[in-house]
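queue> pop job 88
queue> type: inverse folding (structure -> sequence)
queue> payload:
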């Protein structure tokens, strides 16, 4: 029987939401193996001086636990 764990991660990027999600995967994959999926729970944009400053995502990352 496979076990799947889920962690919640906050990631950001000055470029785009897509890049923020890619950053999430890049950082999480440094310490976690067997990643199955990333569910984007929420999006946000940081504003500075009335301009878009950075893009943020809150993600749930699912991965299989090795037996």
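queue> result:
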């Amino acid at each position: 029987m496979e076990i799947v764990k889920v962690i919640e991660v906050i990631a950001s990027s000055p470029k785009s939401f897509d890049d923020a999600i890619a950053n999430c995967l890049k950082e999480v994959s440094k310490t976690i193996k067997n990643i199955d999926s990333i569910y984007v729970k929420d999006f946000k944009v940081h504003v500075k001086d009335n301009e878009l400053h950075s893009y943020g995502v809150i993600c749930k990352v699912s991965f299989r636990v090795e037996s």
